[in-house]
Amino acid sequence: MIAVVGRSKSGPAGKCGLVDPWAAKGYQAVSGLDQSGCSVALPGSAEGFGPEAAAGAINSSAGRFPDGADTDSNCTDFLHQAATTLRIASAAGATNIKVAGVEGFGAGRTIMIGTGVNLETAVIATVGTAGATTQSAATSAGATVIPVADVVGFKEGQTITIDSGTVSETAVIAAINWWGGATITAAAPLSHAHAATAQVSGSGITLTTALTRSHSSGTQVGDNLPTPGAPNRYYRNVP
């Protein structure tokens, strides 16, 4: 945690004030023209007062990477470990998981799925796209608007898969609507009719081996944990 000392606007000239670290979220000013500083957000922190984690928050942590890095910019010196949640349940034997986000994950990395006695590790084969939900009402062949339970993780331009079996098809998202009932608008009319509760999903994260346990929707997925006293084993993705 970083405490920030700066000139007090309300006090006498030359006086300094100490900002509570949790309130500042690690704010660190950077000198120079047009430099406003950076912050290290507290992962899972509450939006209100105090450091308590918000209900349902993903457990994650920030750490220096490379270990000991200090360029006077928290934006470049600190990383968060990659962390997300399952959007739909995964059965034992599955080799693909549907997640709320894919940022920070990469092929070849080991991830942890679940917590406590249900924790298992897996190696990522490929990283696809985020999002998974179900239709909230049936759709007919030729429809372009798909009513869904939610649109978390989806993005415009993304290719999604709708339903399974003989009526499975893909569509490209033209628009996403959050208000007045969540909907996804497809760029072209659907070829098949789909029942209410049909799955709508991104391509997710594919694993090199099958899961050994089942995991419910909302299960945490993360990569390397912070390692106090040793270099953090985080990854910085290179475009």
Record keyword descriptors for this entry:
3 domains, globular, six-stranded antiparallel sheet, mainly beta, disordered N terminus, 239 residues
Question: Helices and strands in order, then pairings?
Answer:
Layout: E1 4-7, E2 16-19, H1 21-24, E3 62-64, H2 74-77, E4 78-80, E5 83-85, E6 96-97, E7 110-113, E8 120-127, E9 132-134, E10 145-147, E11 159-162, E12 169-177, E13 183-186, E14 199-201, E15 205-207, E16 220-222
Query: Helices and strands, in N-to-C order?
Result: EEHEHEEEEEEEEEEEEE
Strand order of the largest sheet: 5-16-7-8-15-6
- How much of the sequence is in beta strands? 25-35%
- Overall mean pLDDT: 78
By DSSP (H or I, 4+ residues per run), the number of helices equals 2
Structural class from helices and strands?
A: mainly beta
Unreliable segments (pLDDT under 50, ≥5 consecutive)? 1-27, 44-56
- The radius of gyration over CA amounts to 22 Å
Number of domains: 3
Cα distance spanning the termini: 29 Å
- Shape label: globular
Helix content: under 10%
Number of strands: 16
Largest sheet report? 6 strands, antiparallel
